[in-house]
Amino acid sequence: MNMVSCIAIDLGASSGRVILSKFDGKRIELEEIYRFPNQPIKLGDRLYWNFLGLYSEIIEGLKMAVKKGENIVSIGVDTWGVDYGLLDQDGNLIGTPIHYRDDRTASAVHSVEEVVSFDEIYKKTGIQKMPINTMYQLFSDKTIRPRILESADSLLFMPDLFNYFLTGEKYSEYTIASTSQLLNVKERNWDWDLISTLGLPQHIFSPIINPGEIYGYLREDIRQEVGLSDIPVIAVASHDTASAVAGTPLHSRENAYLSCGTWSLLGLEVESPIINHRSYDLNFTNEGGVDGTIRLLKNINGLWIIQEIRRVWSQREGRVSFTDIIEAVEGAEYTHFSIDPENPRFMAPHVMTEEIVRYCIEHGQGEPKGLGEIAIAAYNGLVAKYKKTLDELEAISGLEVETINMVGGGIQDTLLCQMTASATERKVVAGPIEASTIGNSLIQFISGGYIEGIKEGRIIIENSFDIKRYSP
Fold first, then answer.
1. What are the residue ranges of CATH 3.30.420.40 in the chain?
2. pLDDT in tens, 12-24
3. Which of 23, 72, 81, 240 lies at a CB distance of 3.0 to 4.6 Å from 179, suitable for a disulfide?
4. Stretch 254-258: mean pLDDT
């Protein structure tokens, strides 16, 4: 077959990228066309997305992709879940989308449970309790910015919001909508009873569209501006973790996936949601996946802890790289320190290094000194959490996990990969790094009829990208 290309737009925790993905019938090849920062903006008391800046950067990236690419057949957008923008009746953006790390949901969990029990919410949605979820954000909007919510005609999650301004169409892609905690996990549609009980306006929720469907076609003004033809924007698995799982070369249902980045997402791809007392007690989530699957997983605070250690240390002691941190860990005198990465104190501390030291002292471990001992506390805590979560996954699913497929930028940290294999006593298959972008591209190529399906696509992915293996 002739070479075909698609454009994958991936917005991560610190940067956005426009990637040209090429497929010749046998292998997928990625070319990074444009990278730009994606940092929240503090304005007054709130933390916002820099939506207008990101949209402008996406348009610039599309222009650059057109100059380099040939036979571009589609576009797809993915980013993280839960966050959203609101539109008025004329399709204008109301205000600026708020970032999930904003603290406005601090009291929303308790307020929601005064209206409806979490037990009932979990039975309906299958989603774990996290204050960042859309349900809690919207409930807090009723108090924090009621005028904006009252004026809203549509709610669109962030990938859908970018797609709307690219196409003029309004949909909620299934995988991203599933992170909201407002989607009925069994019916795979909005849970109107829950939305009504919470006093949220029903009319703002858009129709659900599934991965692989056409979201819409590029607006004429954008086509003229960037130099593209009337090509489709595909509703990829627009939740970046759903795209990452789609882009993971899983060999069987017994393979666990571990998407390593700012967050660690550890889970299994299952055929139907698992909602019972044990999954409830252990706070597991059932998010939408591709090809009719459910991603049974747990969100774990991830390499953001290491990123914060690096940032703080660089500010105070002189610039250090991630390689410097690994070398410091390997040279640490004492290696027994360990934190609980899920402790709320590590979600957004003022100074991460000081918080880790205080935690270790408070828990009778002594005082970690130096970069290596502080960092090993984070590493030990992460891999211990991986092992515990994996054991819980096996108990809930009844499956015996033999292999962990690690993907994402975190797999460049070879220390983390080896420690994960050793702590969990499982084989680790690490790769590909760009799993979200690859999964985004894969859905586009499947939608266009160039790849038959997910199974064939995962074989192509394994043959196209570097894969490393680690033994306990």
1. 4-234, 250-430
2. 988 999 999 999 9
3. 81
4. 96
Q: From the candidates 10, 191, 240, 413, which is the catalytic residue?
A: 240
- What CA–CA distance (Å, rounded) separates 330 from 328? 5
pTM above 0.70, yes or no: yes
- Rounded Cα distance between 406 and 272, Å, is 23
Identify residue 333 by its one-letter amino acid code: E
Give the CATH fold of the 250-430 domain: Nucleotidyltransferase; domain 5 (3.30.420)
pLDDT, residue 299, reads 87
Helix residue ranges, H only, 114-258: 118-125, 134-144, 146-151, 158-167, 174-177, 192-197, 220-226, 240-246
For residue 471, the SS3 value is coil
DSSP for 65-89, please give it. HHHH-SSEEEEEEEE-SS-EEEE-T
Instruction: State the Cα–Cα distance between residues 389 and 84, nearest whole angstrom.
Output: 29
Class of domain 4-234: alpha beta
Cβ-based burial of 230 (10 A; exposed 0-12, middle 13-18, buried ≥19): exposed
**pLDDT score at 51:** 97
CA distance 61 to 401: 41
Residue 351 has pLDDT above 90, yes or no: yes
Q: What pLDDT digit, counting tens, does each position of 10-69 carry? A: 999 889 999 999 999 999 999 999 999 999 999 999 999 999 999 999 999 999 999 987
Going through 183-284 in order, the beta strands assigned E by DSSP cover 183-184, 189-190, 208-209, 214-217, 232-234, 255-260, 263-270
